[in-house]
Design brief:
This protein is an all-alpha fold.
Length: about 170
């Protein structure tokens, strides 16, 4: 991943997660002033709008890394670090994205509740696994940087291609 792709994915994921968590807290945890109040906090509509507007940015960032980071890593048997969490993240992304878009157009209350449950559970698991995936990948990136430093000192053989790509080792 390029630094731009990494920054875009990280920023969009954490902003979507923060706005979604804020909206969840305002809608399901807080109570409104009146007994028939649907809005429990003045910022609740803004948190939802921010979440809905940032969602496509995160989907774009996932699409941006799909070929070089996701598909290439899955097809390369040498790539083991972070594979399990990455596969689960990709598997959780599809129902999270689809349920998020459907929540905006479905009007049946029972279907909306089911979609909301799928979206909340999938989004929560996605964020937790995304954080774990970052920890695993940063540890691995640190090890590969240590290997590059050793290669510069003449202790190890340098790689001639980008890490994660097939080709000359």
């Amino acid at each position: 991943m390029t630094p731009f792709e990494r920054a875009l994915l990280n920023a969009s994921t954490w902003l979507v997660a923060a706005s979604g968590a804020a909206y969840f807290y305002m809608k399901y945890v807080m109570t409104g002033d009146g007994e028939f109040s649907v809005i429990h906090h003045p910022w609740q509509p803004g948190a939802l709008s921010l979440h809905v507007l940032l969602g496509p940015v995160m989907v774009f960032a996932l699409g941006l890394i799909a070929r070089d980071h996701i598909i290439d890593r899955l097809s390369d048997p040498r790539q083991r670090r972070g594979r399990a969490s990455g596969v689960i993240i990709v598997a959780l992304a599809l129902p999270m994205i689809v349920s998020g878009y459907l929540l905006q157009v479905v009007t049946d209350p029972a279907v909306r509740r089911a979609l909301a449950a799928i979206h909340i559970a999938g989004g929560g698991l996605y964020v937790l696994l995304f954080a774990g995936h970052l920890v695993v990948s940063r540890n691995g990136r640190q090890r590969s940087e240590d290997g590059r430093r050793a290669a510069r000192r003449g202790r190890a053989r340098p790689r001639l291609d980008r890490p994660g790509r097939r080709g000359i080792g």
